[in-house]
Design a protein that fits this description.
With 341 residues, this protein is α/β, with parallel strands linked by helices. It has helices at residues 9-12, 17-27, 42-51, 63-70, 80-89, 124-135, 153-163, 203-214, 226-256, 261-268, 293-301, 308-333; strands at 32-36, 55-59, 92-95, 106-109, 141-145, 173-177, 196-200, 220-222. It has twelve helices and eight strands. α2 (17-27) runs parallel beside α8 (203-214).
């Protein structure tokens, strides 16, 4: 069953006392929410939920981060006044004590998912966060993973430690995946007007996740399963990775052909359909594009599948820093200068 709007979710929670209770708390903004991981995803999310009327506790293992947060320093967006107001009223508080998770109605995991030195998924942060949740889990809680990861993570990595406590998904325990969609610095799209994808283990899990995010997002869209929602996030970032690689390669060729790639992109952008502008740069930057595509390449090997487009895009983008250095050397050379010094 696929729900398309959060309003449909209210009818789905019926039949489970735990779901009905949690649904009422979420609808009225009285649910207590824990956000694990207060980085560029977790802190703005915690603030948004607190501003929507929820009592929110943020957990992080970084003591320096917690100290700054306690002083009212918004180290992500710089909106110190709003943060201080929430801290002063008690709507938001920070802690390193995982015991508080037992008193929360919903728990959202926003921890890092980096790559190992061998370019394989490093799931240690997710595993540690899930272990902390499982140690204090109680009946009727909703647990949502937001960290970008490979399809199957919610069911294969998050669920087993929670089920070990003896709860039943969709009845006494609710688990879902909802990929973060954060674009730092974007002046047009923020948490409120960026649609949110949710995929639960059961229709009730999905419905409750919809009710949670409907408090802070204008539109919440349901996926049929967590692995579908996990793949959605990877597709979004791989789309960008591949197109960045394409325009980077075009830029290098255009330079050799003495063609201004910026003019080419500007003119191509006049086409009202079938084209989306991407711009060349010194390689892949940010939190997502250099990492997320390779979570899928790793998982694909389990299915005896080679993701050639992703690998090739990664090769092109990783060569760009050296290409940019060569361009700088040439530019300085035409002015009689050396890069040395």
């Amino acid at each position: 069953m696929i729900l398309t709007e959060s309003s449909d979710a209210q009818a789905v929670v019926a039949g489970s006392a735990h779901a009905e209770r949690l649904g009422e708390l979420l609808r009225h903004g009285s649910a207590r929410i824990g956000v694990v991981g207060l980085g560029y995803v977790g802190l703005p999310l915690a603030v948004a939920l607190a501003e929507a009327g929820h009592e929110v506790v943020g957990l992080d293992a970084d003591q320096d981060r917690l100290l700054r947060l306690g002083q009212g320093v918004d180290y992500i967006r710089g909106e110190h006044a709003a943060l201080k107001r929430l801290l002063e009223t008690g709507a938001l508080r920070a802690s390193s004590d995982a015991e508080v998770l037992g008193s929360q109605d919903a728990i959202i995991l926003c921890v890092p998912t980096p790559l190992t030195p061998n370019r394989e998924p490093d799931m240690s942060f997710v595993e540690a966060a899930v272990a902390r949740v499982a140690a204090h889990l109680r009946a009727g809680q909703l647990v949502v993973l937001e960290s970008t990861t490979y399809p199957g993570t919610t069911e294969e990595l998050v669920l087993p430690p929670l089920l070990a406590r003896g709860f039943t998904p969709g009845d006494s325990l609710f688990v879902a995946y909802s990929p973060e969609r954060v674009d730092p610095g974007n002046q047009k799209f923020d948490t409120r007007n960026t649609p949110k994808i949710v995929g639960g283990l059961t229709p009730r899990c999905t419905a409750l996740a919809q009710l949670l995010y409907a408090r802070i997002v204008e539109r919440v869209v349901a996926a049929s399963a967590p692995r579908v929602a996990e793949m959605v996030k990877l597709l979004e970032n791989i789309f960008r990775c591949v197109n960045i690689a394409l325009v980077n390669e075009m830029a290098l060729l255009a330079r050799r052909m003495d063609i201004d790639i910026w003019e080419v992109i500007r003119l191509a952008s006049t086409k009202p359909y079938g084209f989306m502008p991407f711009y060349p740069g010194p390689g892949m930057g940010g939190h997502c594009i250099p990492i997320d595509p390779f979570y899928l390449t790793w998982k694909a090997r389990e299915y005896d599948f080679n993701t050639r487009f992703i690998e090739l895009a990664g090769e092109v983008n990783m060569k760009m820093p050296a290409e940019v250095v060569d361009i700088v050397i040439d530019a300085l050379g035409t002015r009689g200068k050396s890069l040395r010094g």
